[in-house]
Amino acid sequence: MSISNPTLQLVGIVKTFPGVRALDDVNFDVQPGEVHALLGENGAGKSTLMKVLAGMYQPDGGKIVIDGSPVVMRTPLEAKQSGVILIHQELSLAEEMTVAENVFLGELPKKRFGLVDWKTLHQRVYVILNKLNCDFEPTTPVDSLSIAKKQMVEIARALTHDAKVVIFDEPTASLTDQEKVVLFDVIRDLQADGVGIVYISHRMEEIFHLSNRISVLRDGTYRGTLMTAETNEDEVTQLMIGRSLSYERLHEHVETGDVALSVENLSCGKLYQDVSFEVRTGEVVGFYGLVGAGRTEIAETLFGLRKPTSGQIHLQGKAVDINSPVEAIQFGLSLVPENRKEQGLVLAMSCRDNMTLPQIDALTTGPFVSGTEELKIYNTYHDQLEIKTPSWRQPVQNLSGGNQQKIVIGKWLGMHPKVLIVDEPTRGIDVGSKSEIHNLLRKLAKSGYAVVVISSEMPEVLHVSDRIVAMYNGRVMREFTSDEVTEDNLIQAISGLSDNNLKVA
Amino acid sequence: MSDIAAQKKPNVALNWIIRNPIWVFVAIIFIFFSFASEYFFDAQNMKNLLVQTSTIGLIALGMTLVMINGNIDLSVGATLALAASLAVSIMGWPMFDSWGNWQMLPAVAAGLLSGIVLGAVNGFIVWKTGVDAFIVTLGAMLGVRGLVFVYTEEQSFYAANFAYSDFGSSSIGPVPTLALLFILCAVAAHILLSRTVHGRNTYAVGGNREAAVNAGIRVGPNMVINFMIVGFFAALAGITLSTQMGASTPNLGRDYELWTITAVVLGGTKLTGGAGNIIGTFGGVLAIGILRNGMNLMQVPAFYVLVILGVILIAVLYLDKQLNRKGEEELRL
Amino acid sequence: MAAIEVGKEPASIDVKSLLARQGIFIAFVLFMIGFGIFSDKFLSPENLLTVLRQSAIIGVMAVGVTVVVLSGNLDLSVGSMLSFGTVMVVDLHDKLGATPAIGIMLIAVLVLGAVNGFLIGFLKLNSLIVTLGMLSAIQGLTLIYSGGKNVDVADQETTWFAIFGRGDILGVATPIVIFAVLAVIMHIVMSRTPYGRRIYAVGGNATAAVFSGIRRNRVVFSTYLISAFCTGIAAIILGSRVMGSQNNVGQGYELLVLAGVILGGTSLLGGSGNILKTVLGVLILGFIQNGLLLLGFPYFAQWIVTWVVIILAVWLDVAAKRGRLLSPIA
To answer: How far C180 CA sits from the closest chain A CA (Å)?
Structure first.
């Protein structure tokens, strides 16, 4: 492969937002027929760069060159017309419309009087779907398709134009393994047709599996490009976070106390079946598995948000029936939910008000909320969790992800729960805050909480857990103690694959 | 591709009913009233029914577009009154005295134009300010009604030309002209929505605005055009209504926005946008028309119709929610 | 990018956030000065009190509707409910006497509010459509109740019922007192009590509220009781003032009430706004009406001005939040 003739070239791209330099002198190029992976931690500038590429943001400096001539892409449509197409992470389809209409969205072929030329449309889409080996029809309504198939619709959209560069943003986030194989085949086909691919992902194994080159961003700056064949995960990681990621385990053999929470044969319809485990005070139990394995649903059941179809929950040895979060809280359960912004926080409310929300009834003098009582609580956890915010009055939407997460954790610590469930504790949080939160979780366990951590990041689970419950497809596959767990046997357990199947990592 | 079509055929009827459940309801009440009242299933009554239905029906056609777009227009009742008042009063202007029956032409043109302009104003404000259509048209609902009262000085107008009210009661063959007009407009709106690029873009804008923007659809103009269409239809409804009465009153069309939205929601259009169609809206309009007409024939006081309509609207909402439940996927929030 | 957004430049934000937060108050002052210049009667104490009294009915209803809107819902049924309550209290006044009439009417109205609250809070149906349906249904109930006839109080001179609409307390017209007391109480409830905090939480983010152990359905249910109760009080004032009622007396009130709430700057999305802002919004509506009349404009000119004012007010609010005047929609 020659590195002389890039399809797309970004030179010295700068993009600033008020108070932030999101991209600073970033260089990047894509050769025809290569897969160029783009890596970086959350907040490193990947999505900003991608939006610049797709015409959604205008760079403040630098230039974009396509096939040797500089271009300006003011809108996604202009980017598309220049041959740059973005496959969105959050799918961008009109659900109630047909596959064909979505593929040609914004560019439906016309007849006289502005009528849609259905025949041409369906023929053209049919050809594209065939090329992608799709088993659905142009006339299928999109809302009846699975996520993987919807993604194919997005890819089909890319093929309506003479796509020179296709950008995939975390394309496998919600795909099953079989669906991934199909996607990878499609990417290879595109590659074979001479299309340049930009592949953005966190998943190291996919990147090494697919890409020709790897470029790394950190803090909005370009950190270099590596030939995939000549590098390894360590080198890439080092480039990404500025140091080698330690897999050092935080857990020590602590004296665990009584069983705080035990679950027997819990099932909830098709979501998960026959789940049993127990958590003792003083320990962290990690739940590891792919997205959709049923981990979050178990947490939601424990917190009274789902009704189990069978099984039994015991808290402190007593059988309990939990019908609502209110009851769960009374039983001493707390849940730091998966989606901080949608489930964890009232974004427009102040830091203090968010933190005191579950116990607001107790913080009163007479019929009125007592501001002093509230501040007392707030200050306690503000100090303990080292939350960085100018003032308690600050609406939480102005805080960074890490500090927001600490507010949610503080909110529940204030309730003095027996069992603290933390779902994806560090999603969307920068590296520094990540390790702070990990240490915090350990500290909490040590001080007598029973902690459950649900995570999709293996290093995280390995890092903080005393025991790990591996789930696949709604079932507990295996429970590991920290001594027996290795990356290999953990991955084996959560992928539901037998040894001779495609083995990742 | 032909084999796909063949394989799908058996489901077409069923699919159609699933997508337009309102027609099952229309059929049921139609059959019910046919048995319950000897006057219901009668040629003359059917004509009345269609004419009565046409006013709300015309507005509902436009409202369907606006609601699929993800917007709403609360100002249609006031727009209707303004168009009717303009048309009926301009017809009587002395400058058109010598025009004979042609004096209706500038009158009707002015009425229709007022609707289109008000629609454009609403649409443009929604587009450029980014204020929610609910608030923009709520303001317009008050403001345009204010315009009507100020313009008419709170008086009713009577049509100067008898041909105007003759039109309202005329028939083409066996079919009342107004009914025919409504059906033609419904067909046109259906084609616009289901077959034209503008119509399909209307769904895209309401279904996933970001996707529409990214695909290069000009969201703003698309919305403005739909507001202009609903303005036009509201004005047209004002004119047909005033031809039926041979007059206009400043209070004309009060509460029509509520009736219209009720009809459109009954017809399966989602408040959140992206889904709905004219066939459903037509069913929704008919359902309301048949209920009112049938209960009137059975001498149920009009009061009860209001209660029953309210209950049906809420019941439809409830059923829709039950049918679209995701079952165990859903959290108990 | 949320991580780095803390460092916004403060200088430009001060003007913007001042406009966003106090815009309605500034507009109010400008209005008063403007009208005051053109009409010498406008700022006279008698005139101001007249406006306050005339605004009281809409104001009392708006207090209740604000609570509903803060929790993230709408109530379009208040206009019909006002008709219903007024017809009922006036009708029962002569049949049972004033006190039972008021009691029974308030209970009836609370039942209607409970129906709203049940459908929206517990069945989680869309509030716009539910209250639209209730608007129609309650209108029908009113007509069924009265048989389509207007009602009035036979002996209007001696009944103590007159106190609510026609009387005064310490020289201040009773409607104003009721409006003021209700607004202050509800403002305190909303800003100082745990209950108020829960309403803001539900309106700000209903899902997060549930995840924080708030019973969303009960909170929403209760807001409709408050809205219905306030409308019942408004019906007492109206019935007492007119000593009679038409069946459709409340028609269109839902919109004027909502106009006041929106003008005050309470967001229809819920979670932001407050009762005092609504009071200002309602007063602005009242002063627009009064000022235009004093300047010799036709009565309904106020609606045209209200149209413009509402859109300008919300536009400024939206523009201040997004940091640019025009929307970025293509």
So the answer is: 20
